[in-house]
Amino acid sequence: MTSLPIISIAGLNSENPAIRSATAAELGKACREVGFFYAINHGIADHVMAGAFSNAKSFFELPLETKQSLSIKLSPHDRGYVAMADEKLNPDAGADMKEAFNIGTDFPADHPEVVAGKPFRGVNFWPTIEGWRTYMLEYHQACLDLGQLIHRGFAIDLGLTENFFDAHLAEPIATLRMLRYPASTDTEHRAREDAGAGAHTDYGNLTLLATDKVAGLQVATRKGQWIDAPHIPGAFVCNIGDCLMRWCNDTYVSTPHRVKAPEQERYSLAFFLSVDPDSTVDPRDVMPTEQPKYPPISCGDYLAYRLNETYEHRVDIDAT
C-alpha cells in the first residue's frame, strides 16, 4: 500500500440499504487493512472548513500570556491551551513541537454532571475573539454529525443494527483540537521523524482530521512502512482509535501515525470522537461469537488512563 483509500461518505445517507451497505463495506475494508481513509462528499462545505482554519489561526496569534490563561493545566476535563512542547505523544522520543487548543461539548456551568465534577464533563475555555465561540461550536457540531453518520457505517459493516452506536453517542466525549506546528529551523528536530507529533495511535473511536496544504502527516502500513498522507482539498483524513479497536475485538485495528517537523508553519483541525463516558466498551457486545481479547471498561476510564500517559499534569489532577 502506498496511499490511503478515498471513500465517498454520501452513500451512508442513501435511502437504499444496498447503497448504505456498499459504502459501509468500503469503510470496513479500510479499517481492517490500514485503519485510515480519506472521507469525501461528507456534506461539510469548503467554506466551513476554511472558516475554522481562519479562526484557529486567530487564536494562535494571541499573545502567549493570553493563551496561557486558558491553559489545559487549569482544566481536569481535557480542555484549553496546550503550550509548545507540553505534550509527549511518544514519550521515548521527546516533546512534540506544536501547540494546540481543545474544546469539547459545550456544557453549561450549571449542568448537573459539571456541578458534580464528572470527568470529561467540564466547561470550555473561550478566547475573547468576536464570534469565535459561535463559529467553532458550529464546526464542532458539523464534525459530530459526520462522526455519528460514519459510526452507522461501522455498525452495518460489523453486522450490528445500524443504530447500535446511536445510544452511546447521545452525549459523547467529542473534542475539537486546533493545532499549530511552527516552521522548524532546528537541525535536531528536523532530523527526528516525529518531531511535530510523536508516533502514536489515537485513543478514542474515530478521528476526523482537516489539514492545510503543508506536508507532515505520515501513516504506518501494516508492514511497518511509513507513507505520506497528503492534503486532498475538502477531504477529511479519518482513522479509528484504540477504544473502537477494543470494542470490535481487533476486527478494526488502530494505526500508528506521526507528524514530521514541517518546513513551514502548518495548521490542522482534529476532531476526536469517543462515546459517552459511562458507555461500557465490551467486545462481547460487538463480536459476541469471539473470545474477547479485552475486559469491559467504561469509555471515560479508558480515556483517562490514556491521557494520563500523555500529560504529566493529569497525574497530579487525578491524585487530588
Protein described:
This protein has 320 residues and is of the alpha+beta class. The C terminus is likely disordered. Helix 2 packs across helix 5 and helix 9 crosses helix 10. Helix 1 links the parallel strand 1 and strand 2. It has a single domain, classed as Sandwich (Jelly Rolls). Helix content is 32%, strand content 19%. It is built from ten helices and 14 strands. The chain is globular, with a radius of gyration of 19 Å. The protein has an eight-stranded mixed sheet. The protein has a four-stranded antiparallel sheet with strand order 6-11-8-9, with no helix packed on it.
Mean pLDDT: 92
Q: How many DSSP H or I helices? A: 10
Order of helices and strands: EHEHHEEHHEHEEEEEHEEEHEHH
The proportion of strand residues reads 15-25%
**How many strand elements?**
14
CATH class: Mainly Beta
Structural domain tally: 1
Keywords: Ethylene biosynthesis, Iron, Metal-binding, Oxidoreductase
Protein name: 2-oxoglutarate-dependent ethylene/succinate-forming enzyme
Cofactor: Fe(2+)
Pathway: Alkene biosynthesis; ethylene biosynthesis via 2-oxoglutarate
What's the arrangement of secondary structure elements?
Elements: E1 6-8, H1 17-33, E2 36-40, H2 46-60, H3 64-68, E3 80-82, E4 99-103, H4 112-115, H5 132-157, E5 174-181, H6 187-191, E6 197-200, E7 206-211, E8 217-220, E9 226-228, E10 236-240, H7 242-247, E11 257-259, E12 266-273, E13 280-281, H8 283-286, E14 297-298, H9 299-310, H10 312-319
Parallel strand pairs: 1-2
Antiparallel strand pairs: 2-10, 3-4, 4-5, 5-12, 6-11, 7-10, 7-12, 8-9, 8-11, 13-14
Helix pairs in contact: 1-5, 2-5, 9-10
